[in-house]
Amino acid sequence: MAKNREKFIPSEDQMALWPEVSGNEVNGLGEAKIRRPSPIYWQKPELTPFGPLMKWYRDNQPVDEEYNQVREKAEKIITEKIGPKFPQRQENTAEKWTELVKKVGLNNNGDVIGITRMRPEWVIETFEVPYKTVIMAGVSMNFDNLKRAPGRYSAMEVARQYGRAHEVTNAMATWIHEQGWNAVSYGGSNEVPMLLIPPALECGLGELGKHGSIINRIYGSAFRLGAVVTDMPLITDKADEFGADEFCLICKACENACPPEAISPAKQLVRGVKKWYVDFDKCLPYFNESIGCGICLAVCPYSRPGVADKLIKKYAKRGAWLSKE
User: To pair with 91 at 20 to 30 A between CA atoms, which of 47, 119, 126, 233?
Assistant: First the structure.
């Protein structure tokens, strides 16, 4: 999308619901100290000043039988409760448990699984999580559906894959319970008590992109997440750096394609961390009026099938060349 695109102007009825506070302020933009995030979207409406905007978004979804069926199926999966069975606790080494639980996730339609330790700044301040080990599950999206963003096809794909991510985390949580350990499954984008991208970055599922979403070394930005927290002893993984951050410094694909111009060309300080950040106050109105948008993920060069590996090799060679200078 060219830079001279028509300027996006939000609808008056949506903006009439906009609170006095800036979403960027709620998110901690410009704050120098690390802190827990505040609830801002996809939580219970009463927890956030943007609750009326959430209701507006849901009330203005398209009247479309197929779209609604996909969303309802995903919601059913996401809201499924997984209860512990309290069998006798099995004992094993952390190495063996790690091998087995990852196998369960991959065998239940997960694409990548990583493990890390919980950090307080990942837990939304109105919630608590009961266990300190985090298992992250990543699932790929169908690029042919994603590239049609914004609209019903990409929105349905997002719903399908959030549902699939939760099926993966439910399977792992159920299996952990069967071994006599505790676990809670978190998936989808509704009322999750913790951030999903930071632990996914920490355990090697990808790097943070300029568009504010994760870039996986295989699936690019066509990627969704789910999580399990557990007390099962597991071995943690390392972060995976393959050149995406360096690429984002020079790439302007998502920045130029964003209709509300919400994507910054430079990293910004957010709750004590300098990182890529998308302007919430610019992004949300367009997101709400375009069935969830997704343009930035669709235009990301890493998302195109077969491209990620070529980009990784290109920047690996560039890094090797620079190291000789």
Answer: 119
Residue 64 phi, psi dihedral angles, 5° rounding: -150, 120
Distances in Å between the alpha carbon of 1 and those of 220, 241, 260, 300?
20, 29, 12, 12
DSSP-based three-state secondary structure for 134: strand
Distance CA 213, CA 292 (A): 14
The answer to whether position 310 is within a domain reads yes
Residue 109 lies in a domain: yes
Evaluate whether 116 touches 136 at the Cβ level (below 8 Å): yes
- 3-state secondary structure at position 183: strand
240 phi/psi in degrees, rounded to 5? -115, 110
Per-residue b or e along 95-119, where b marks 16 or more CB atoms closer than 10 Å to that residue's CB: eebbebbbebbeebebbbbbbbebb
**What Rg, from alpha-carbon coordinates, does the chain have?**
20
CA distance 43 to 28: 17
Domain-embedded: residue 295: yes
Q: Which domain holds residue 264?
A: 22-319
CA distances from 197 to 33, 62, 133 (A): 19, 29, 15
The strand ranges marked E within the chain are 112-117, 133-140, 183-187, 207-208, 214-215, 223-230, 268-270, 273-275
Question: Could you tell me the CA-to-CA distances from 315 to 220, 242, 308 in Å, in that order?
Answer: 15, 8, 11
d(Cα 61, Cα 150) in Å, to the nearest integer? 13
Residue 174 lies in a domain: yes
Residues linked to residue 186 through DSSP beta bridges, in sequence order: 227
Alpha-carbon gap, residue 207 to 213, rounded angstroms: 8
pLDDT tens, 10-66? Answer: 999 999 999 999 999 999 999 999 999 999 999 999 999 999 999 999 999 887 889
- Stretch 134-146: mean pLDDT, rounded? 97
Domain count, the chain: 1
